[in-house]
Amino acid sequence: MGGSVRDLLLGKAPKDFDVATSATPEEVQDVFPRCRLIGRRFRLAHVRKGGALIEVATFRGVSDPDDDREQSSGRILRDNVFGTMEEDALRRDFTINALFLDPVSGEIRDYVGGYRDLANRRLRLIGDPDVRYREDPVRLLRAARFAAKLGVEPDDETARGIPELAPLLEDVPPARLFEEICKLFMTGHGMRSMEALQRFGLSATLFPGLRRGTGRGKVQVGALLRHALENTDERVRAAKPVTPAFLFAALLWAPVEARAREYVEGGDSDYAAMMRAAEEALAVQARRTSIPRRFSAVTRQIWMMQARFTKTRGKRWKRLLSEERFRASYDFLLLRAREDAALEPLCAFWTEAQEGVELPVAESRPEAGRSRPRRRYRRRAPAG
Question: Of 16, 30, 102, 171, which one is the catalytic site residue?
Answer without folding.
Answer: 16
